[in-house]
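Suppose you are handed a protein chain with no further information: no name, no annotation, nothing but its sequence. What can you learn? This example shows the usual starting point.
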Amino acid sequence: MKSVFTKTAAALCAFIAMLCAQGSAFIKWVECDVSADVLNKVYNLCVKYHGTEKEFDFSRGVAYVATRNGNKFSKKDSKYIKDLTENIEKGDLAGAYADNKYFKYHCEAYGAVLDGFVGEYTDRGGEKKFGMKAYFPIAAGHWYNHYDDFGNSRSFGFKRKHLGHDIMGSVGAPIVAVEEGIVTELGWNRYGGWRVGITSLDSKRYYYYAHLRKGKPFAEGLEKGAHIDAGQLIGYLGMTGYSDKEDVNLKNCAPHLHFGMQIIFDESQKDGNGEIWIDVYNICRFLSRHRSDGV
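A reasonable first move is to predict its three-dimensional structure. Written in structure tokens, the prediction is:
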């Protein structure tokens, strides 16, 4: 569990980054601490009002709550969800906060995180729908367990923070693409073992799936540059990595998927010290309502 000091320090860093972002060409950091409860409630409202004159963007609804609570999510958010609902009914989601600089910042920040998750889409059967477009990364019918481990210490190679989310599961469980995109990384990495990197079509989100299965890590025919649909099979859960030699399992480690999500506002943030990796624990809890069969 994150300490009070860690949470306070993170909130302070996020606030400073937000202020810096006001005077820069692009956002330098995102503190994504949105709760699964808020994601679910805003999503339900989004679906309810879709197709009416009061429909709204999912990410803007989340941004409104983040503005009202100072991006510190808690049980008090029920009040802000109620206010959001009243504003939607009036046809004015932002209400008095429309010109608020924090609301504008959160719209851009949460837009980069969530814009590929909800909307109109054609399902894999060819039927047009509206709703959740993104999928939980482990296919339906396969067990998993997880907790919020973002920021935990790691030491292989060098001491660092864990910038992803470990989802425990069974070796060979199908791993699917969370969102539609292009395969931009594929192969062996000494830290992540066999891994796949997929960049969203709008280039704002980079998904990292690591520690895939020894011997047969990837879906048949998967290659760099391929176009991948949301929910499409990309590989199989395993426990490879922490080795310069390929196809080696981690020692003293249970099978799991390392799932990471990087947010990109500018080309300079793709690699190096400017990278933005967010805590996806609650996002995964939200995505668990939508699972693909991985076929």
